[in-house]
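Course exercise 7: structure representation. Students receive a sequence record and must write out the corresponding structure in C-alpha cell form. The form below is the worked example handed out in class, using Histidine kinase (152 residues). Read each field label carefully; the graders check that inputs and outputs are placed in the correct fields and that the protein name is recorded exactly as given.

STUDENT ID: A-19
EXERCISE PROTEIN: Histidine kinase
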Amino acid sequence: MQAHEIAVTPPTVRMDDPVSKAIQLMVVNRLPGLVVVDESDHPVAVLPGTQVLRLTIPESYRDDPALVRTVDEIHADLFWHGPGKLTVGDCLPSPVAKPVTVAPDATLLEVATVMATKRSPLIAVVDRGGKLVGAVTLERLLTSLAVAGPND
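STUDENT ANSWER:
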C-alpha cells in the first residue's frame, strides 16, 4: 500500500485562522491535528492537537503544575475557552518547523518511519509541486497496518 491509498482529504487551516476554528475542525473530523496551508494550498506546517491544547492552558498553570490542583472542577472543565483571539500561527513555534510530508507513492513503512521519527500524528501527502493532496493520520496508518496482508 502507498500513502495516497490511505490518505484522507483533510480540512486545512491558514496561519491567520482562529484557534477556535482549528479546534472545531479537529473535533468534527476526529483528527489528531491539522495541516496549515498557504494561499496556494502548499503545507507550511502540521499543527498537532497537543500544541493547540498546550496553548489553551493558562501559562501560569503550565509553569506550575501544582497550581492546577487548586482549581475547582467546574472551572477546570472550562479552561479551554481561554484561546480567545489566538490564531493558528500563535500555536506554532517560531520559526515554524518544516511540515512533515511524504510523497503519494510512499510505502506504509516510509510513512510509519517519518511519523515516528518526527513524532507527528498527522503526515501531509504532497505532490511533486509541493501541493497538498491528502494526509495520513496515525489512526489510518495503524488500521492499514493491522489489516494489511502479504498480498497488499
